[in-house]
Automatic annotation (TrEMBL), chain A:
Species whose genome carries this gene: Ruegeria pomeroyi
Stated name of the protein: Thiosulfate oxidation carrier protein SoxY
Residue ranges constituting the Ig-like SoxY domain according to the UniProt record: 35-136
Lineage of source species: Bacteria, Pseudomonadati, Pseudomonadota, Alphaproteobacteria, Rhodobacterales
Superkingdom: Bacteria
PROSITE patterns: TAT (PS51318)
Amino acid sequence: MDFSRRDTLGLALGAAALTVLPFRVNAAAEDRIAEFTGGADMGEGGLTLTAPEIAENGNTVPIEVSAPGATAILVLAMGNPTPGVAQFNFGPLAAAQSASTRIRLAGTQDVVAIAKMADGSFVKASSTVKVTIGGCGG
Amino acid sequence: MISRRDFLQVSMAASALVGASGFGNWSRLAAQQALTQDQLLEFDTFGNLTLIHITDIHAQLMPIYFREPEVNLGIGAAKGQMPHVTGADFRRFYGIEDGSPSAYALTYNDFSSLARAYGRVGGMDRVATVVNAIRADRPDALLLDGGDTWHGSYTCFHTEGQDVVNVMNALKPDAMTFHWEFTLGTDRVTELVESLPFASLGQNIFDAEWDEPSELFKPYKFFERGGVKVAVIGQAFPYMPIANPGWMFPEFSFGIREENMQAMVDEVRAEGAEVVVVLSHNGFDVDKKMAGRVTGIDVILSGHTHDALPEPVLVEQTYVIASGSNGKFVSRVDLDIRDGRMMGLKHKLIPIFSDVIAPDPQVTALINAQREPHVDQLREVIGRTADDALLYRRGNFNGTWDDLICDALISERDADIAMSPGVRWGPSILPGQEITREDIWNVTSMSYGAAYRTEMTGEFLHVVLEDVGDNLFNPDPYYQQGGDMVRVGGLGYRIDVTKPQGERISDMTLLKTGEKIDPAKNYVVAGWASVNEGTEGPQIWDVVENHIRKLGTVNVTPNTSVEVVGA
């Protein structure tokens, strides 16, 4: 028999990572938002969050945030055990209020960005990133 | 005849649009019982620009049979919308008569008997004749290849795509985009792309390390045709490293990259493009969604999901055109571009009836030259189908080809359960037809065809079915990968396509005992086309060949193991 130990291990790891789908929102994420906004209402618009719809590799997912005029942008992976990804602060001399990074996602979940604007208001953008086994493209 | 309702839909959207297509002719031809090459090609040249679209050839250089799907479910907003309409409903929508050539070409009913009446379809030498005829009308027509070209046959596998490249180059395409080509691996795909005498496009093909546009593939190319400045933007298959083995081309990253598509459209418009064409391998529903969100695209030539539609679908200001697969169709799209904008469109989906369209002798000779070194292997007869057994693949759930492949895996690999990928390529075999080695490779050939044998828990099997189910039935097209449901043998299940991921699949049953699948228990599973690196096992085409050789005559029994609800 051509039983492959390596395959089985690979599949088993995949199983461990994918049994709960999608990942639930971690309560710590809500706490972190409340801390950042002080409980203020969040509007929409003026903040662009660019993330893939389906992650090519959940261990390194490229994302980009951009909010002209923002003083800070908070990025959260809502379903990760540790939801905080990054907080980008922009000083008055910053040429552009945008940043890109790569994040690790434990499973399918929403990635949320919240920007604090110069007038103290907040805007929010959200994007669902799917983490999948894949393998059946037509 | 073209239905009045459709004509109104199309004409209201763009008042300058003239005569939606030559499609109505087919029904008339059926009544006349006469089908000629001239009639198939009949087209009153329109406007000042012609596009010729062919896509998803899957290396089918020779004429084949190809049965369209019986089950092609649309989810959410796509429910009941084209292309998620099949059979009699499809014929009614387009006013196609039962038993007509168009019924044979576009729907599944009575396939075996209609196939005997109308013969094989496709063949790149016939396609060459059609392309040449269109170029005789409009010498500077653009020929655009939507990809999935260098994959899917014995000769393509053994020449690593060179046979198809040689034949396609003879047709002189102007641009191409990509999907399965990448499964040749980075080195080979790079070598072939660098050899091409035409543009290789993909605005969404990025360098994985730097997340910047790939240097090998350009986002778009300008053409000056008919006095018009045309921009063709490429859109490769977005989910290559997910649906196919990413380890074979780790240097590349894809994705839909809608924001970059908008940026490219804006860029080409700013540079003076009078018409913007997207050559896409997104899949039809993804293209529809993109057409509604990205502004400034005139025409999307859509590939990947293998849909063949006799009319364009209009989304906002964008026409989406689906041109089938396996060399079965060519779309001709004539555009009237004036004052820097599209004023009208005329379209015809031309079916390549192999017995009606004369082969181009030069391309026939070229195809024969590619096949010559392999011809003994190709033609060896392995078995035959029973007099009532049709082998086909297309459909959201099991096709009879897949049932046969799953049977081969269970029997040859001594497994409880078999899994076979839900791909949409692979020609059909008629009842009472010989099955050659070439036929088996046409439905199995790939660069990662090892047939693994492993153990999976019942829980993991459920996760796999849920995961693939969501790739197909997620209501948001941007989360769909465009294949069909993974095919299973030895396992029954119930699927509610309206439910969210994790809740669609229930009642999983081990068919050989009738017992419910136990989440905690291990089952021996045989499958193929794993995207994992290092997968071991015999090649799937050898497994299937051994099985068919033992059977001699292949019988087909109705597959009732998947219960679909919510459709």
